[in-house]
Amino acid sequence: MSKLDERTLAKMDLILEQVCKELSACGGDHESRKYIALKMIEAEGKGNTTLGDLEVVARRALNELTQRKSA
User: Fold this and answer.
1) Residue 12, Cβ density class (10 Å: 0-12 exposed, 13-18 middle, ≥19 buried)
2) pLDDT by residue (tens digit) across 27-61?
3) Which of 17, 43, 49, 54 has its CA at 20 to 30 Å from residue 1's CA atom?
4) What pLDDT score does 2 carry?
5) d(CA 33, CA 21)
């Protein structure tokens, strides 16, 4: 894994907070947040570093989590 620059880290942090607010009032459990963060890190490694790209990845991960929990 490459070292993330400050700008990308700031984007990821912002998106993680926004997306995880949908999990619960306190921002979700650690494992859910970790899963979403790891998906964003994987995407960053593939060159997806824009705010829009990372948000799409995070929302997909959130959808995967919510579908698993409802199944």
Assistant:
1) buried
2) 678 999 999 999 999 999 999 999 999 999 999 99
3) 17
4) 56
5) 10
**Residue 25 has what DSSP assignment?**
T
The reply to whether 32 falls in a domain is yes
Report yes or no on 48 lying in a domain.
Answer: yes
Residue 71 reports pLDDT greater than 80: no
Q: Looking at the domain assignment, is residue 2 inside a domain? A: no
Do the beta carbons of residue 35 and residue 61 sit within 8 Å? yes
Q: Is the pTM of the predicted complex or chain greater than 0.70?
A: yes
Structural domain boundaries enclosing 11: 7-70
Q: How many independent structural domains does the chain possess? A: 1
Contact by Cβ (8 Å): 12, 4: yes
Question: Buried (b) or exposed (e) across 26-60, using 16+ Cβ within 10 A?
Answer: ebbeeebbebbbebbbebbeeeebeeebbbebbbe
